[in-house]
Amino acid sequence: MTSALFSNLYGYLAEALADTAGAGVPEWLAYPGQRWPLFEAARELSEEHSSPALDGVVKSLAGLQEDTLNAHEAIWKKILSGNGRQPLAVYESMHRNGRLFGPSMFAVKAEYHQAGLEVAGSELPDHIAIELEFLSFLTELEAAGGQEAKQWRLIKRNFIRNHAAEWMPNVGKLLVSTNDPAWRAIGQLLTAVITLHETTPSNRQSVGFPVLNQASRCSLCGFCVQVCPEQALNISENNETTRLYLLPNQCVQCRKCENICGQNALSLEKTELSGEPFLLRQSKRAHCHNCGQATVSKAEVAAVATRLGEHPQWLDFCMECRGLSFLDIEPGVVK
């Protein structure tokens, strides 16, 4: 069921983003959001997955009012041209390589060839609509089952990891930044479906969850939390403790957390987890030696000191007290 929903959404997104001249957007964009052909698929997918991003998409679509097709075409022309800003890059090579016919385009073409496909017509193979149609095609074959389903699933996963996930969410975010509710909803949905791929519990368990094999390496810097597209990682703090939690049901195995971890403390591993928040790391908080205000975690203080090769005095003070002369500081008093 999930694969069929993804296939439908990929196909309708391809239809919405296929035009490169700004005069051929699909008629259904002018309908109220609940009459869009992709609405039911998005709603059903949000019911199957615990995803704030998909819930937001459904809410946006439900509130979308009817408008004229000319209005949406005019906005699309402005988005494509940039309207005084940077034009929207609808080709992967333009987005990732800074030019058409870049290395990404030839890599995409090779992926199609591996699947036994060739691009017909004059459009370049790395256009976003063609890549989305390819994903729809692969997901449909996967949904059909049979002995080859595993092979199609593997090709799809690799294509998302190596191509779609590397640039389509950024296109989605640019569309979200527009003032047009319809294109904003398209952007939300594009980002959600590309980020949400392979998120059934069984798939999550087979791919793995973020874990800290060596917790002492984790400095609780929070970079993994910042890059997590689904807020599956969260930092909770009170005056005494900093804690890093994983919400397993929201993890989509995008590996962004793993890739950004400068200490190589975090990696995706196969592990049995319930859907409840899971504590990955905790540390007592440091407090300013002058005013007593809680600062960062002691784990982060230790990590900074290790990188510096010493523990300078300023590390023990809050940002406000660091601006004071250490000679003027009296314990418990800020001058």
SSE layout and pairings?
Blueprint: H1 2-17, H2 39-48, H3 52-62, H4 69-81, H5 92-97, H6 103-114, H7 128-143, H8 149-176, H9 181-196, H10 201-207, E1 209-212, H11 223-227, E2 233-237, E3 241-246, H12 256-260, E4 266-269, E5 278-287, E6 294-297, H13 298-308, H14 319-322
Q: Describe it for me?
A:
The protein has 335 residues and is an alpha+beta fold. It folds into two domains: 2-197, TorD-like (Orthogonal Bundle); 205-328, 2-Layer Sandwich (Alpha-Beta Plaits). The chain is 48% helix and 10% strand. It contains 14 helices and six strands. The strands form two sheets. It has a four-stranded antiparallel sheet. It has a two-stranded antiparallel sheet with strand order 1-4. A hairpin with a 3-residue loop joins strand 2 (233-237) and strand 3. The longest helix is centred in the middle third of the chain and has 28 residues, at 149-176. It is globular. Mean pLDDT is 85; it is low at 198-204.
Strand proportion: 5-15%
Number of helix segments?
14
Q: What is the 3D form?
A: globular
**What's the number of structural domains?**
2
Helix/strand structural class: alpha+beta
Task: Return the CATH architecture of the largest domain.
Answer: Orthogonal Bundle
Percent of residues in helices:
40-55%
- Number of extended strands: 6
Under CATH, the topology of the largest domain can be stated as TorD-like
Sheet bearing the most strands, described? 4 strands, antiparallel
Q: Topology as H/E string?
A: HHHHHHHHHHEHEEHEEEHH
Q: For the terminal residues, how far apart are their CA atoms?
A: 65 Å
Spans with pLDDT under 50 lasting ≥5 residues? 198-204
What is the arithmetic mean of pLDDT? 85
Name of the CATH homologous superfamily of the largest domain: TorD-like
Strand order, biggest sheet? 2-3-5-6
> For the CA atoms, what is the radius of gyration?
24 Å
